[in-house]
Amino acid sequence: MAQNVYDNPEFFSGYSQLPRQVHGLAGAPEWPALRAMFPEMAGKRAVDLGCGFGWVSRWLHENGAQTVLGIDLSENMISRARELTADPAVAYQIADIETLELPEAAFDFAFSSLTFHYIRDFDRLARMVQRSLTPGSHFVFSIEHPIFMAATHPHWIEDEDGRKTWPVNRYALEGERRTDWFAKGVVKYHRRVGTTLNALIRAGFVIETVDEFAPSPEQIRGIPALEEELERPMMLLVSSRR
Amino acid sequence: MAQNVYDNPEFFSGYSQLPRQVHGLAGAPEWPALRAMFPEMAGKRAVDLGCGFGWVSRWLHENGAQTVLGIDLSENMISRARELTADPAVAYQIADIETLELPEAAFDFAFSSLTFHYIRDFDRLARMVQRSLTPGSHFVFSIEHPIFMAATHPHWIEDEDGRKTWPVNRYALEGERRTDWFAKGVVKYHRRVGTTLNALIRAGFVIETVDEFAPSPEQIRGIPALEEELERPMMLLVSSRR
After folding, report:
1. Which residues pair with A240 in a beta bridge?
2. How sure is the predictor about B1, in pLDDT bands with cuts at 50, 70 and 90?
3. How many CB atoms are closer than 10 A to CB A104?
């Protein structure tokens, strides 16, 4: 079973204060880039893997999806998602994506935001999502970028000119990474960009777009702290088609 | 026109001493991984973009390709390639890949080793290669990995544990990079992994495999210095299909 750090009160309390939890999609700078990868939503049956508070699940329904199933390991997250959701076309389920089996060909769109880097076996997950989708369906997701995750000590350093610089080591040594992020010893799984893409391709997906999110000049004018995201990517956004 | 550093005597003299030039394919640790991406070669008309001394051009013919056209900007490289090649089925041409136009549907396999990071306009190149290939053909190439190329000062540093670490900055700031490598001010073009893959997809290729080369345990036992390649990738290997 995947580590359920989201139901650790210390973690949940810190996590809930993140701009993207307080402000929803408006607090997620990568949202416009992710949304640009979505197909036309009208009439689609969508699944949102690691739905958290359900911000995207609700958006999908408001933008045409017929039904949305949001899935999350965390009882805290699902409780809040249910509180925030009025429409019964958006349903929620507590489940561990690491072992989840969705019904075959039950969905026309699969989405996940910043969840799969908590999953140990991405090969299994990609095959399972592929089976759950109808032919032609899109599978769009974001994960922490492996450049961001690889190093033993992933934090800003400076180069000889004082420029903000990110250290990379252990890039080819895939597997568990433990970091302190609102709680001690949060477990994540580092995979190379190629490993993630090849797992999708082997599972039967065609890669459509690979975006290593960087803020736009307008976003940086609005939130100057985003400028450091130009130095190294924090998120990898992938659009694929079954 | 692309910078022709290979015809700078100082550069060429240093470059010619590299293990991969002295020992050919046996001196290129990524060669087994690249070769594993090749389709069956029998009867194929192949093009080798940035063929250098023609090591791969000759290998392709020896392994079934009917004809091979090796192309390089450098007169030095092409002269040496011609000296090393006896079979007229392997031909060479001096040309700048930045502006080259190959005939339409004239090839069944396109290859390039460590050349495209010298090319400013990869979008144009991908479209040109696509037109030059017959449907179903493979396009396999290696480039310097953007993790290796991005930073202002790309060289080993140490983290707080003394672990070999590679600095990344300016990752999202694509474009020219100047480095000193056998000569001063060698011009390369940094592109994100996603930018390279998206250009291929837009040009009409399907991504088949993305390999961020890392040496095998056997290779490290043979050449212990290769171990540092586990810390950060130096090369990106891509297989795609038209």
Report:
1. A139, A207
2. low
3. 11
Provide ipTM, 2 decimals. Answer: 0.95
**Nearest-5° angle of CA A143, CA A146, CA A168?**
150
Q: How far is CA A134 from the centre of its chain?
A: 22
* Angle in degrees, CA A185, A99, A64, rounded to 5: 100
3-class DSSP state of B137? strand
Q: pLDDT (tens digit, 9 = 90+) per residue, A74-113?
A: 999 999 999 999 999 999 999 999 999 999 999 999 999 9
DSSP for residue B118: G
Tell me the Cα Rg of chain A: 18
Amino acid at A107: F
Inter-chain CB proximity A170 and B211 less than 8 Å: no
Measured CA angle at A10 (ends A8, A12), to 5 deg: 65
Looking at chain B, the whole-number percentage of residues with pLDDT higher than 70 is 100
**Dist. CA B196–CA B143, nearest whole Å:** 10
Verify whether the Cβ–Cβ distance B168 to A166 is below 8 Å.
Answer: yes
Strands annotated E in chain A:
45-49, 67-72, 90-94, 107-113, 133-144, 157-158, 164-168, 175-179, 186-190, 206-212, 235-241
Chain A positions touching B230 (Cβ under 8 A) are 170-173
CB A231 within 8 A of CB A163: yes
Q: Which of residues 111-150 of B touch A (CB under 8 A)?
A: 147
